[in-house]
Design goal:
232 residues, alpha/beta, Rossmann fold, 2 domains, seven-stranded mixed sheet, 10 helices, 17% strand, methyltransferase, transferase
């Protein structure tokens, strides 16, 4: 299967993953070998899960999708879970994707085995992201961690700065808009500077989000943000 075919399926699923970000997930998963394991934290309706699952199926890997499907207007609860399961079935991935309908912190307590690709797009507050980053303890040698909404969420960015600048647990490699790529290695001074160089862009994104909520149209025009959505 080509990425274009996979994206045609994924793009029918609700969510905020862009095509370019989907390609980054696809390419990262396609580098795995048979028996590889992908862990996704935060699946929602399965937009990213379909991309990861189809890539995994093409190389003989598997995906573990973790989402508690919290009730409420923002997350949708069990109705979102039903959509997720229907979308996975429609993509032919029932035998490739394993769902753990629970918080990632709870799933982590019983997890064993290596992770060959970690994708994090869960709740965006600082403490939840820190908990989600605990999964990096299980990364296999050379495995990547991809994190959505980096540099546009105060909670996500704060947790990443702590892990890179303070704890030195992750090394920042690159990004596709707000999807950032890390590996588990001690960052050098140059690695830290590369991460810090993203902070002006992060400040711009946070300003745009605040302006949208305040309906500050002149600010949005000045920043040339004509999208009805937050930057992601």
């Amino acid at each position: 299967m080509r990425f274009e075919d996979a994206w045609a399926l994924a793009d029918t699923v609700g969510g905020w993953l862009t095509e370019a970000q989907g390609r980054l997930l696809w390419d990262s998963a396609r580098h795995l070998t048979p028996g590889g394991r992908i862990v996704e934290i935060g699946s929602h309706q399965g937009r990213s899960t379909v991309v990861l699952g189809l890539a995994a199926a093409s190389v003989g890997a598997r995906v573990t999708a973790i989402d508690p499907f919290v009730e409420g207007a923002m997350f949708g609860g069990q109705s979102t879970r039903a959509k997720f399961e229907a979308n996975i079935a429609a993509a032919g991935l029932t035998g490739v994707v394993d769902l753990l309908p629970m918080k990632s912190q709870d799933a982590l307590t019983t997890w064993s085995g290596d992770i060959d690709l970690l994708y994090i797009d869960g709740k965006h507050d600082y403490w939840t992201v820190v908990d989600d980053l605990g999964w990096t303890e299980h990364l296999s040698l050379g495995a990547l961690t991809l994190i959505h909404d980096s540099f546009c969420s105060v909670g996500v960015t704060s947790a990443l700065l702590h892990h890179v600048l303070v704890r030195g647990r992750l090394r920042y490699l690159r990004r596709e808009t707000t999807m950032a790529v890390f590996d588990r290695a001690a960052p050098t001074g140059a690695d830290r500077k590369r991460l810090m160089a993203e902070l002006p862009w992060f400040s711009r994104n946070v300003t745009i989000k605040a302006a949208r909520r305040l309906h500050a149209t002149p600010v949005l025009k000045a920043m040339k943000h004509d999208s009805p959505y937050d930057p992601y």
